[in-house]
Amino acid sequence: MGRRSILVATGWVATAAIATLIGLGAIRLVGESLTGTPGGVRSEAEIERALASPEPVPTGGTGSTSAAPDPTSTAGAGTNGPAPSVSSGARRGFATDGGTAVAECGAGGVRLVSWAPAQGYRVRDVDRGPDDDVEVTFQGAAREYELKVRCIGSEPVAVADD
Description:
Blueprint: H1 2-30, H2 32-35, H3 44-52, E1 79-80, E2 91-95, E3 99-106, E4 109-117, E5 121-127, E6 133-140, E7 144-152, E8 155-159
Antiparallel strand pairs: 1-4, 2-3, 3-4, 5-6, 6-7, 7-8
């Protein structure tokens, strides 16, 4: 009976090992969609580059726009301005320690396309334009950042506050 018990235990261990290897192989085959973050984990530098890069300008003759969240709301992590117009001009992203913004120059002057406060900051005030200059103020517990943008030529440029 001792030999039979050893044979049963060995068979059980071998079956458990095979089942574990099949399970691990299946998880590896499915990949990140089951066990990881979709699109992978991004570094802080990659996130800053993505936030600072201009958004693609839609091209189409339909002229339809989508509704956008209220730009004065501070409930979400990011707040966007109005949907881009068909006559969008040159766009540029700007970053401060308080948050980021994207501005564009067009026929009516400069306007803020989108803005988002950094973690620990909120949007205190927004002048989104279009106008000669636009600004967004990010307020944190200990510090405040004001980003003011004007068009020089046809390019949006950050300027010092008057």
